[in-house]
Amino acid sequence: MLIFATMINDVDDRAFMQEVYQQNERLMYAIALKYASNTQDCEDIVHDTVEKLCKNIAKIKGLPNSALRAYVVYAVRNTAINFRKHQSTINRHIQQLSGDDSNSEYDQPESIIERIEDLQEKRTSLTKLWMQLTDAEQELLYRKYVLEQTTEELAGIFQCSRDSIRMRLSRARRKSLRLMKGEGTNDETRTTAGKL
């Protein structure tokens, strides 16, 4: 693979990764095929996995063969799962953009006006709710649910442990649900430097 030549400068490391790839190539493709819908996606998954393995070469060089094989299996599986989630998100957005509403109930001008008014009302409610969250809560929820960043990525951004991120997310979700149900937050004021 050309990736070895571009990512790894050390000749011994490059030879090691080439050997790991050759020994596990069929296994990697077999696992990727379980998650991929076509051969191009399968190749992308394997390529992304190899790229991740190259970045962790110091770690995997010290592993015995059985552990190395398991490491490769988990790396491919995790990469494939993340790839599938990403593809699902892309497909969902494409469907939303290309949705055919030509036969929907909103064809009538009155229905369209009602729909616009309904959406404006929901937007106003959501904006009020959003403004009651702290900046930190807003950023955390935005990164998790809009940008779909992983717990590990969030832990790096917020410089805390994954468990801490999970707790922060849990608190922010509970607070949002309370606000949606109209329970309020005991007149908590929104602060720009608020902590979760």
TrEMBL record:
Instruction: Note the InterPro entries from the entry.
Output: RNA_pol_sigma-70-like (IPR039425), RNA_pol_sigma-70_dom (IPR014284), RNA_pol_sigma70_r2 (IPR007627), RNA_pol_sigma70_r4_t2 (IPR013249), RNA_pol_sigma_r2 (IPR013325), RNA_pol_sigma_r3/r4-like (IPR013324), WH-like_DNA-bd_sf (IPR036388)
Q: Does the keyword Glycoprotein apply?
A: no
- UniProt keyword Transcription regulation present: yes
Q: Which GO terms describe its molecular function?
A: DNA binding; sigma factor activity
- What residue stretches are annotated with the RNA polymerase sigma-70 region domain? 21-88
* UniProt xrefs under Gene3D superfamilies: 1.10.1740.10, Winged helix-like DNA-binding domain superfamily/Winged helix DNA-binding domain
- Family note: Belongs to the sigma-70 factor family. ECF subfamily.
Matching PANTHER family: RNA POLYMERASE ECF-TYPE SIGMA FACTO (PTHR43133), RNA POLYMERASE SIGMA FACTOR HI_1459-RELATED (PTHR43133:SF8)
Family matches, as NCBIfam families: sigma70-ECF
Q: What is the name attached to this protein's record?
A: Sigma-70 family RNA polymerase sigma factor
Which species does the entry assign this protein to?
Dysosmobacter segnis
- Taxon lineage: Bacteria, Bacillati, Bacillota, Clostridia, Eubacteriales
